[in-house]
Amino acid sequence: MAYCASARVDTCEQAIRTFEGLPHRVQVVGVIDDVTYVNDSKATNLGSCIAALEGVITQPSSRKIVLIAGGVGKNANFSVLGRTISGRVRSVVLIGRDAKVIAKSIPEARVVFASSLEDAVVTARMEAVSGDVVLFSPACASYDMFENFVVRGQAFTRIVEGMST
Questions:
Q1: What is the CATH number of the domain that holds 157?
Q2: Domain total of the chain
Q3: Domain that holds residue 41
Q4: Is residue 53 included in any domain, yes or no?
Q5: Which residues sit opposite 95 in a β-bridge?
Q6: What is the pLDDT of residues 39-72, one digit of tens each?
Q7: C-alpha angle 47-52-56 in degrees, rounded to nearest 5
Q8: pTM over 0.85
Q9: Contacts of 120 (CB under 8 A, 6+ apart)
Q10: What average pLDDT does the chain have?
Q11: How far apart are CA 97 and CA 147, in angstroms?
């Protein structure tokens, strides 16, 4: 498409190299104690969460994901999540209205419940070890706790930034 628009190659290469992505879409928001915190609040459905889980690099194999998920599940079949997290997720921290429903669907996972997003981030920090990724990819709608995914994502980022000071 760039070629058809007569865009210069060097300009396109520079744009690709410097593109930081979009907010709340697998966005790295901090690294604390060698643990990377990723904001994927836009993942308001199971498919988006699974894509994020599959996209996060977990090499070497000792590097794991601590997943923060939950909210309004919209009657999704969360058993699919169980197959995706196997071998790559250290634990799942669940929040929101459908946390217990999600937990029942992923019996093979280590599940920890949290009463708020702040509690979930603190819990995830305790669950993670050096080199891990804390992935906030809710797989659910936000309206049980937040106005929308943007407000939810901003809250996550603010909490993480507050931990690093």
A1: 3.90.190.20
A2: 1
A3: 21-163
A4: yes
A5: 70
A6: 999 999 999 999 999 988 766 677 899 999 999 9
A7: 150
A8: yes
A9: 68, 70, 93, 94, 95, 114
A10: 91
A11: 14
